[in-house]
């Protein structure tokens, strides 16, 4: 066991290398932005799907979360 | 050291749990104000002799499944972004442990992504806002979020650069000042939006905005507390190396 004999009472957390975070950051950003787009903007300022059903379905959430809405 | 994959999964799950709590606030505080605003809208339309708008999605569905879906999707997305921000902050915020780091990141996220944009472009209930300007209002709102994120990035960079000279506390305060100045300039430069009708109920508007604030506060607060608690627990249960016995030298 290569453990130090002196117990460390309050260890500092080890950092996560940036190169390990980056690919996940890109993945999460793309997925997150698509999700936010449908809650925050689809069929409002712009639309990918025609009609108003998506807008009407998330209508209350869009208003209450602070997004501009009609 | 926690893996990025486990943090991302944890962030999204915690975001879903936080959304359930936010729904409770939205139901009790938000929905009465949305209903009040819609009745104002309908009374106006009736007075103007307009026919009632066809209901594509019933109010009942909007208040329940629709609102819950919106909050869950928003919560999962937010939790994912949050876990990335946490990963960068973990071990890099002075001597803060997992729980304090988690809460600090959540507080910063709440201020940057919600509080800063709504102080310029506040949340509005239905019947407030001109439908013709939705494109401009949406662009300005998202631009404000982007500006706040950039200001936060600059402030974080400034704070970290100054920490060896000023010490952690004063460097953090300097970062806050940098953020406030950048946001203040953006507030002054970006165009205002004045679309609340003169005869709209001030009471409804105020309590709607309070409810919106409460929903976001609970969402971010729950994410910060749950994520911190779970990460702290997994670090304690991990191997000694994962628990952080190695000093944080590689920054």
TrEMBL record, chain A:
Q: What keyword terms does UniProt attach to this protein?
A: Membrane, Transmembrane, Transmembrane helix
In terms of Pfam families, this protein maps to:
CbtB (PF09489)
Residue ranges annotated as transmembrane are 21-40
| InterPro entries associated with the record | CbtB_put
Q: What is this protein called?
A: CbtB-domain containing protein
UniProtKB/TrEMBL annotation, chain B:
Q: Which UniProt keywords apply?
A: Membrane, Transmembrane, Transmembrane helix
Give TM regions: 65-88, 100-119, 139-159, 171-190, 210-231
Query: Which InterPro entries does the record match to this protein?
Result: CbtA_put
Q: Which domain of life is it from?
A: Bacteria
| Protein name, as recorded | CbtA family protein
């Amino acid at each position: 066991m290569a453990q130090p004999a002196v117990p460390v009472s309050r260890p500092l957390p080890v950092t996560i290398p940036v190169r390990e975070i980056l690919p996940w950051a890109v993945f999460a950003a793309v997925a997150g932005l698509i999700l936010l787009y449908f809650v925050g903007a689809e069929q409002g300022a712009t639309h990918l799907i025609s009609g108003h059903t998506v807008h009407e379905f998330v209508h209350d959430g869009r208003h209450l979360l602070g997004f501009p809405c009609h | 050291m926690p893996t990025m994959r486990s943090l991302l999964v944890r962030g999204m799950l915690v975001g879903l749990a936080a959304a359930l709590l936010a729904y409770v606030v939205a139901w009790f505080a938000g929905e009465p104000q949305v209903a009040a605003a819609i009745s104002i809208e309908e009374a106006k339309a009736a007075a103007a002799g307009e026919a009632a708008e066809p209901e594509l999605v019933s109010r009942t569905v909007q208040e329940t499944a629709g609102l819950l879906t919106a909050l869950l999707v928003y919560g999962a997305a937010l939790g994912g972004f949050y876990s990335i921000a946490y990963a960068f902050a973990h071990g890099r915020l002075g001597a803060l442990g997992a729980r304090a780091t988690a809460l600090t990141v959540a507080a910063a996220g709440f201020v940057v992504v919600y509080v800063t944009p709504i102080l310029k472009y506040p949340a509005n209930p239905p019947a407030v806002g001109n439908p013709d300007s939705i494109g401009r209002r949406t662009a300005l709102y998202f631009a404000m979020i982007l500006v706040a994120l950039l200001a936060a990035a600059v402030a974080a960079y400034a704070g970290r650069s100054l920490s060896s000279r000023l010490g952690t506390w004063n460097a953090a305060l300097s970062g806050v000042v940098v953020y406030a100045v950048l946001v203040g300039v953006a507030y002054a430069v970006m165009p205002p939006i004045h679309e609340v009708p003169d005869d709209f109920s001030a009471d409804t508007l105020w309590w709607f905005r309070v409810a919106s604030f409460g929903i976001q506060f609970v969402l971010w607060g729950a994410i910060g507390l749950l994520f911190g608690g779970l990460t702290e627990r997994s670090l304690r249960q991990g191997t000694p190396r994962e628990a952080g016995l190695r000093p944080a030298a590689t920054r």
